[in-house]
Design brief:
- The protein is an alpha+beta fold and 355 residues long.
- The chain has 8 helices and 18 strands.
- It folds into 2 domains: 227 residues, Rossmann fold (3-Layer(aba) Sandwich), CATH 3.40.50.300; 104 residues, OB fold (Dihydrolipoamide Acetyltransferase, E2P) (Beta Barrel).
- The strands form 4 sheets. It has a 6-stranded mixed β-sheet with strand order 6-7-8-3-9-10, sandwiched between helices.
- The chain binds adenosine-5'-triphosphate (ATP).
- The site of adenosine-5'-triphosphate (ATP) has 11 residues, from helix 1.
Length: 355
Amino acid sequence: PIHSTAPASTPLLSTRHLVRRFRDADRPAVDNVCFELYRGEILALLGPSGCGKTTTLRMIAGFETPDSGSVLLGERDITNVPTQKRRIGMVFQDYALFPHMTLAENVAFAMTHLPRKQRHARALEWLALVNMAELGERFPEELSGGQQQRVALVRTLAAEPELVLLDEPFSNLDAGLRERTRKEMRELFKKTGTTVILVTHDQAEAMTMADRIGVMRQGRLLQVGPPQAVYREPADAFVAEFLGHTNLLEGEAAGLSAATALGPISLNTQAHGPVTLSLRPEDLALVRSEDPDSAIIVDREFRGHDYFYLLARGDSRYCAIVPNHDPLEVGARVRLQTAGEASVLPDEGRSQTQH
Ligand code: ATP
């Protein structure tokens, strides 16, 4: 199921039933992928290694030809248009700045649409946008990885592409720098109105950077929607688990509530009969209890602002995230109390809970 909640106007980019099968593979690397992207939007393609994200991106860029399906830029079919004529910019993991050129020269090099005389001044303006104007005469080797990444991005933007594609752009940066760079890049994209597709396997990166997230698995696009929607209303168990920890529960629904092993739980939507539910760990509260039917804390992880608890009750395992005051110790017995709504997974999800 594709859940699209983008505004209704002409999309900047549409992919229509994209399929790419590599020789000898038993299933397509990209399998009937359809989505639309609107001007100024940041879309993250999120999924585990090998799910087809990069191949999808390469078909949009023109490095790879689909076996079937099409790519539209506005209303123009660009499926067979060569890469260099697509007005699509791509930033790779390894930056690929020219080592023998200064930063300003690297950026100016991309501005083939401007008269030569204007390029240097414009390059410095672009560098100023990422607070690097005063480094314009430096060479790439004199910069940190994060700075090189910013220049590579600015160089791509300076060519004024219709669309920018980023493939795991932060994977070479260490954790702290990565978080800062994500924030800066999102601000830069919003300031310049840039339309972006970002490929990542990191759910935190997708959530913090993107306006919408497309979750992929085994070549298929399972769900597209704003981060809050894919997190709170996942299309199936795979999406629920890929976007963070969750408790998958079987229940018997009657309207806005379901009977489960944890007692009655409020639902995010009306349902009737047998259902599979996703209950996020932050929606479970733990109450000390000596009741023989209570759960036992088998592990806990201190995460600064909260604790992540792993619990056992009979053969079932649960997880809960609780603010860090009054922590509970491993071995403590607790009653599991729901403190939020569970999401009903659409029917297709029921067959996939065992993956
Ligand atoms: P990763 O994050 O690891 O790059 P991905 O989601 O981007 O993964 P793809 O790189 O698109 O996935 O690969 C999808 C599938 O297609 C994988 O099984 C991969 O091995 C296969 N594949 C990709 N490129 C080729 C190729 N040129 N020839 C054969 N098989 C390929």
